[in-house]
Amino acid sequence: MNKKTKKKIFMGILGFGDVMAIICLVIFYSPFFGFKDWLVTTAMSTMKHKYIARTFYTDKMINEVMSRNYIEDFKENTDTSKININQIEEQETYESVYEQEILEHKKGEDYKIIEFDGNNYHVKIAVIYDPSRVSLYTIPAFGNYGNTITEIAEESGAKVAMNASGFMDASGKGHGGTPTGTVIKNGEVVYRGYPTGWPGGFIGFNKDHILVLTKDSAEDAIAKGMVDAVEFGPFLVVNGEPAEIAGNGGSGTQPRTAIAQRQDGVVLFIVVDGHGHGGMNFSARGGVTYSELIDILMRYKAYNAANLDGGASTSLAIEGSLYNKPCGVGGTGERNLPTAWIFK
User: Fold this and answer.
1) 1, 11, 131, 252: which could form a disulfide with 209 (CB 3.0–4.6 Å)?
2) What is the pLDDT of residues 256-269, one digit of tens each?
3) Mean pLDDT over residues 166-174, rounded?
4) Beta bridge partners of 302
5) How many CB atoms lie within 10 A of CB 305?
6) Element (H, E) at 22
7) Distance CA 60, CA 37 (A)
């Protein structure tokens, strides 16, 4: 190969590099492709991956992105008079395939699982027909290590167990023993946490087994009948009305956990995985935006619904076995958790 040919190859490589650099600049910094908003909101809503956004963007750019991607906070609480808990019976006809998925079940079947795929996500919904059998699990002692969802299921004897509140993770090691926000168990405050700083409030069940979403104080919520609750958010559906979303809601695309109740009292435990076991691979997480999650909730007639801790915390156990693919560290991807919603 002569010098002239080598020079052409070298210049071609340089030219290709320049083109790729320009493409990257356009993707990362152009306002027209939505990539910047997706990357910033997704990274900034995680515990460990905020550095990804800060690698490419200034604080000013990040703040600008977050300011145009948010979820409107609800001003009203759950109207419990709108929930009519009744015995669900199989029907001959259904108004939609989604209603059939929810309501059609075998005699004596106290819960069922609905599963389906979307674009870069997989949804599992535990449909629970008796809300009186839903309760909040809390670890024996807050402040140290939490339990994995399978440990929680085994210890509590739960048929279905799903992660609930967030937890402090300053060390980045996911000890899971210190909740974010306040926790109510059996009508008492069992942990007094710091305000979460995001939209939402108390998410829990009252003495009538109705899912209540409220911005009341813990004391007021208990006085009104709250039995079990965690402080988290945002609220996604209140009294049948979906939350208003600006942009992608400010949390990008993530694995998600949500709890919901229909007007007929049926409770939904919802987990959304990204495709594949993500581990520490940020790009493999997948999942849904708040808007996509709300679409799923409305499809299945959620009347009140709230977001719970997602990302690597999203986890579901059925009959004592792990049923989803958490994207945390380790063989199963499970994280240690301080609280969980369980069905026994």
Assistant:
1) 131
2) 999 999 999 999 99
3) 69
4) none
5) 27
6) helix 3-29
7) 13
The partner residues of 128 in beta bridges, in order of sequence, read: 111, 267
Amino acid at site 156:
S
Element (H, E) at 61: helix 59-68
Look at residues 238, 309, 240, 242 and name the one whose alpha carbon lies nearest to residue 270. 309
Q: Where are the alpha helices (DSSP H) in 196-304?
A: 218-223, 290-299
Could you give the CA distance from residue 269 to residue 257 in angstroms, rounded to a whole number? 8
C-alpha 9/C-alpha 7 separation (Å) is 5
Q: Helix 35-44 vs helix 59-68: angle between axes, to the nearest 10 degrees? A: 100
Residue bearing tokens 């007007």? 263
Question: How many whole angstroms separate alpha carbon 191 and alpha carbon 166?
Answer: 13
Count the neighbouring beta carbons within 10 Å of the beta carbon of residue 77. Answer: 19
Count Cα atoms within 13 angstroms, Cβ side, for 187.
7
The whole model's pTM is what?
Answer: 0.84
- Map residue 57 onto helix, strand or coil: coil
Q: Which tokens is 151 given? A: 């440990």
Is a pLDDT exceeding 70 seen at residue 228? Answer: yes
Pairing of strands 256-261, 304-308: antiparallel
